[in-house]
Design a protein that fits this description.
Layout (H helix, E strand, L loop, with lengths): L1 E3 L1 H5 L13 H7 L2 E3 L5 E4 L10 E3 L19 E3 L19 E3 L7 E2 L10 E3 L12 E2 L1 H7 L5 E3 L19 E3 L8 H8 L7 E3 L11 H8 L5 E2 L2 E2 L2 H32 L18 E4 L3 E4 L9 H9 L2
Parallel strand pairs: 1-3, 2-4, 4-5, 5-6, 6-8, 7-9, 8-10, 10-11, 11-12, 12-13
Antiparallel strand pairs: 13-14, 15-16
Organism: Fundulus heteroclitus
Keywords: Leucine-rich repeat, Repeat
InterPro entries: Leu-rich_rpt, LRR_dom_sf, SDS22/Internalin_LRR
Amino acid sequence: MVRLTVDLIANSRKHFKKKRGLSFLHYLKTLTHLYFSNKNIEEIGDLSMCRNLTVLYLYNNHLTNICSLDFASNLTHLYLQNNNITHMDNLSNLQSLSKLYLGGNRIAMVEGLEELRSIKELHLENQKLEPGEQLLFDSRTLLALADSLCVLNINNNNIEDIKELSVLKELQHFSAARNKLLFIEELEGVLELWPQLLALDLGGNPVCKTPKYRDRLIPVCKRLETLDGREINELTRQFLINWKASKEAKERRNNDQILAWPLAAHPTTNDFDVGQGPHPGHVYRPANMQGWEPLQPPESSVPLYQSRHLTLFH
């Protein structure tokens, strides 16, 4: 088993080179960047002497879990993509972390980030999920990221809806390409809650085949600059915003007319308001939109339900 330890660092030509007057211990204490990608590493050992570490590259290895990073309170960038990590554990002490790369692992639940309030970028694309499985999100983690997260990449994770992501109000770049998003109404409802959004990529989802897909989404995102890799010019945006406003105004007018129709059909002054009230044996309906007329003449002065009773049992 290959473990990332201080001994491995000491034997790395890319890292420590013994210089006159510079001890290995001093080197570890001043080390800020550590490059160990593509090294068949399966486990992270004790690196607690590297207290000034800010960037750690461990992508394209064989890690199955995240461990031994409790010391790294200064770490800002963590690259762990293309390993075999199954759970987002042991990250709570990384208080300075701003960019976390976990694409190409085996993560089924986005969790464990409740204590991290500085994360600006989260990359989770291409998880190696079981058949029928989709990437899920823990609500506590989403709430913790709500005020900081600017970039989210969840491409190719079998995701069927993104309603729960609506709390991420500071998102500027959102990629959810090659998922299973289907309903454009749900997308519109979420996107209108992301006022900072600049780039959106939904390519390869079924929803992209919806008629007027771009025309509907562009007016919702007032600051959007690119949609599915295509730039949006300001003239197009203004045209679509005006088109949407005109369409909504027309729908409101139609709704107002529908709501007003019963008032025209049932005037406040009619036969019930003056003179004799309705006969107890009548069933009434509107007559020419002016008053009310019996649906059928009374058979007698006996109430309708009684006369029917007598007819049935004659």
